[in-house]
Each structure stands twice: as C-alpha cells, then as structure tokens.
Amino acid sequence: METVENNLWTLFEAVAEAVPDRDAIVWRQRRSSYRTVHDRARRLAAVLTIHGLGVRADRSDLSAWEAGQDLVGLYLLNGPEFLEANLGGYAARTAPFNVNYRYVADELAYLLDDAGAAAVVYHARFAPVLAEVLPRLRRTPLLLQVADESGEALLPDALDYEQALAQADPGIVPDRHSPDDLYVLYTGGTTGMPKGTLWRQADIWMSALGGDLLGADLDVEAMAAAAAAGPEQRTLPNAPFMHGAAQWVALRALLTGGTVVVNGIVDRLDPVDVWQTIGRERVGATLFVGEAFARPLIAELERGTYDTSSLALIAVGGAVTSPETKTRVLAQIPQVLIADLAGSSETGSALSQLSTAGSKPEAGVFAPNPDVAVLDVDLSRRLEPGEDSIGWFAKAGRIPLGYLGDQAKTERTFPTVDGRRWSVPGDRARLRQDGMVELLGRDSVTINSGGEKIFAEEVEAAILTHPAVLDAIVVGRPSERWGQEVVAVVQITGDVAASDDDIINAASARIARYKLPKAVVRVPLVIRSPAGKADYSWARRVALDDVASQTPIS
Predict the structure, then answer these.
(1) Backbone angles phi, psi at 331, to 5 degrees
(2) Same domain for 67 and 104?
C-alpha cells in the first residue's frame, strides 16, 4: 500500500469543491457553507500574502526545532473566524498557532515573542491586553481585529477583519502547498512555560485530524469523493478551539465534509446552551474534557428535559473522566458511544477506549496499538507484557518534528529507542500483565511522599467518587515528615454535606492509604483552563497559602 502525503489546505479545498452548499460552520443564527468558508479563507490568505507572509525556508534546510514559515497567532474565542483563520493561514503557507485568551500581559508577551508572531488575528475584546503587550515585542505583527460585542475600538495600524476580507482578491493564494507545511500547537503551560509543537501537516492529518480513519492510501480526490458520498456529520466541539482537543475535533469535521456547530455562549461552559444547541442542530458527536465538563453537563441533563436523540458519540479527552460519571452519561443517553481518547500536543490521538450502555466503564486503561509503547524509566528499551512495570508512555510513527526554538527539549522529548524515534511527553504509564496500558499522569505533577511516587490524577479520580465533591485538583506541598504531603484542593457542591474525613474515606475505597490526602482545602471554585485542564500552579499556591491554618489528617 502506497502512503499518500497530504496538505491540510489542499484537502480542505478539495472537500469544499465537492460539497460547496453543505453547512461547514453553524454559530447562533449564522450558517456558513463550505463555499463561503472556502472563499473567506482564501481572502484571508490573500491578506497575509500581500503583507509578505508565507514560507521563508525549505523544510529540508531546517532543523527539527526550526520553523521556515511565518507564524500567525489566533487570539480568538470560538467562532467561524477561528476556523477561517486557521484554514486561511494554511492557504497562505503560514503557520497559525493557538493563543490562550486568558493570558495576562506577561504571559501573552512571552508567547508572541516565543513564536516570533508575524501576525495576530484577535477579537476586539482582547485589544486592551494586546495593546499593552505590543511595545514589548521584538517583532511588530500584522494585526487583524475581529469585531465583537465589546465595542473596543480598532487598535492603531490594525486592519478590520471584515473590511480586509472584503477588499482582498481571493485569487492571490500560493498555488503549491507541501505536506511539510507546518501545523503548530502550543502546549497549555499549566505545568511550565508553553512550547510550540511543530508538526508536518501530513503527520497531524494522520495522527489527529481524520486520516487515521480514512486510510493512508487515499489521495485528495478519493477523500473529497468520500465526503460528498457520506452523510452530513454534525459535531459540537464544545471546548475552546485554542486547545488541541477541540481544535482537532473541529478540523477533522471540516476536512472530512462534516459540519462544525459552535456553542452560542463561547466565553464559558453553559450546560443549558450546550444541550439546547445539540437538540436544535441535531448534533451527532460532541466533546467532553474530563470531569470539569462532564459533571455539570450531566447534572443539567438529569435536571432538565432535552432532546439528545441525535447524539451518537461523546469523545472524552484532555483529562480523566471517572467510570461513575460515564455511567451517569450512559443512563441518560443510552444510545451513545463514549470514546475515551488519550493523547497530547506531542502525540496526537494515541489511544482510545469505548464504553456503551451495559458495559463497565474504566478510566485511564487502553489497549495499545503498534505505535504505542511503555518505555522503561531509563528510556533504554520497550517494556513487554508480563513485566507489570511503570515507565514512560510513548508513541512512535506520525509524531511532531520538535519544539519551536528549543533543541534541548526536542532531543529529550523525542528520543530514539530501539532504533525508532518516539514521542515521550512526560506521562507515567504502567504496562499491565494483560498487555493493557494504564495511564497514571504527568510526571511533572507526581508527588513524592515518604519515598513513594503518587500520581495526582489517580488521587483526583478517587476524591471525585464522593458525591459532595464537584471538582478537585491534587498537589504536593512540603512536609517535614513526608518530604511532600498530598493535598486535595476541592470544590464542594451545595447539595451534599460532607466532612473532610468523609471525602478521605470515600477515596480510600479506590487507592492505597499512603496515597490519601493529608489535608483537604476547600475553595469556592477550582480553577481550570477553559478546556477543563487542571491549573496545578494555582492549586499549589492555594495549598501553600492554607498550610498555616489547615490541620493535617493523620
């Protein structure tokens, strides 16, 4: 079988020409056909091109951590413009990248400088923070401001997004695109500084955007024909496009002829809006990001009356979702298939596990495929079933080139073991006796207490089994006795009373005593990223601030 190397813009253009009148993006009252999105993406590409942005160097002349294309920051809430700018950036042979819209000025300045951003497409509401940052940047980017409800005035020298598109010539687009063109995804930075992960477009297509399902031997014409012949799949990504999981879900839909349905309320998770949108638009697939999304969504579904009859698939990724929560979901939507997806910016979609009504859902346990392994702690060999050892989760095959501008971290994260190049993003994993891979969590948030390694995500899952706990993040803090002690930072629901001992005792049914929290710190709201990922830096500060007043649990 001959492997076909694909470029994302070339794929989208072929699909758009095959299904021009099909809905591509639906948001509130706005419906954008593939013809419309294709035209608007080409117009944005023309704007970038006439401002001199595009390819600077051939991929073959670059190191793995170097980008030979201009980078375009997408500083946007969810909406049609985010996806148009993504596609238009690919059309111009630039490299769009995600910008976390919650960043304060210092964080935003770091990110834009790290990327060497040549352009920024941003919602008007973010103009004040961007204006504060611009004088500090080494490079002055082209600015494209998308109007919104904020009423913020256009920044000096910025282009109004709609006016720029209206005046652009959609014919001014590079006519040759390469499988080596970059896809760039910045890591979240919740456990360290964000890093730009550099992918060849041909590789991210196969690893996360749909190529793995369609097959490696289909050319552009065959994929466009398949999109035209297939049913219209309607997908609600739910989480912010600025994070990988939702962005991948959205791009996968657009590259395979599906329809992306965007939440009406885009600056927060609103469960009522989500379920109403699913019913109104007959959504067939959606995304939950861990307990932070699943719990409030299923609680609202249990309270209200909503039409979920169209829903066939719920993808769960980005954070752990407990078996109890999956069981609640299946009780409310018995026809749905829950697909647990494990992956990261550095691996793409690497593992999956399916749950259906009547099954016994698990959390964090997956059947490996040939490109997935657990490497030993020294990164010297691949562990084999029967060893029942803890090592490093790793993926080979279609993986990133490296981290933008960081040779040392590229070489650490993408080592060669047993003659294969692997992506080792820092997740601990156990290869069980039965050959299944059990993901334990990021090593960067592992707690060393009394000489034992304790995985924060495992403890979080145990704490969340108590019905009073709405959300929890587990961290370590310094302890004279233990070196580090386990602390649970929890948000309690108002519906169920529970003491700290009650919460600890519930967790003790799931994990060994040495893993149990030595302290429980209650907060009004657990802070997570907009995509539901735990903010461990914030939780550590909370645990440290509380140390003087918190009575340790023996």
Answers:
(1) -70, -35
(2) yes
pLDDT band at 493 (very low <50, low <70, confident <90, very high): confident
Q: Residue 101 falls within a domain, yes or no?
A: yes
**What whole-number distance in Å separates Cα of residue 550 and Cα of residue 554?**
12
Answer yes or no: is 327 within a domain: no
pLDDT tens per residue, range 417-439: 999 999 999 888 988 888 889 88
Dist. CA 147–CA 163, nearest whole Å:
11
For residues 506 and 402, state if they share a domain: no
For the record, the structure tokens of 159 come out as 């282009």
Convert the pLDDT of each residue in 317-363 to its tens digit: 777 778 888 999 999 999 999 998 888 899 998 888 888 988 887 77
What is the tens place of the pLDDT at every residue in 38-84? 999 999 999 999 999 999 999 999 999 999 999 999 999 999 999 99
Dig out the tokens for 45 from the structure: 């590409």
Host domain of residue 243: 8-268
Q: In angstroms, how far is the first alpha carbon of the chain from the final one?
A: 62
> Where does a domain end: 388, 410, 441?
441
Res 399: pLDDT: 96
Structure token pair of residue 120: 């920024």
In this structure, the answer to whether residues 426 and 523 fall within a common structural domain is no
Question: Do residues 48 and 54 touch, judged by C-beta distance below 8 A?
Answer: yes
Query: At CA 215, angle to CA 209 and CA 216, rounded to 5?
Result: 90
User: CA-to-CA distance for 442 and 457, rounded, in angstroms?
Assistant: 8
Residue 433, both tokens? 């006796």
Q: Does any domain span residue 298?
A: no
Amino acid at 58: D
How many domains does the structure of the chain reveal? 3
C-alpha 159 chain-centroid distance: 29
What whole-number distance in Å separates Cα of residue 469 and Cα of residue 497?
A: 10
Beta bridge partners of 41: none
Question: Cα(99)–Cα(95) distance, rounded to whole angstroms?
Answer: 13
Query: Measured between alpha carbons, how far is 238 from 68 in angstroms, rounded to an integer?
Result: 33
Residues 389, 533, single domain; the answer is: no
CB-based contacts of 385: which residues, under 8 Å, 6+ apart? Answer: 431, 432, 433, 434, 435
Q: What's the confidence (pLDDT) of residue 516?
A: 92
What average pLDDT does the structure give for the chain?
90
In-domain check, residue 304? no
CB 42 within 8 A of CB 88: yes
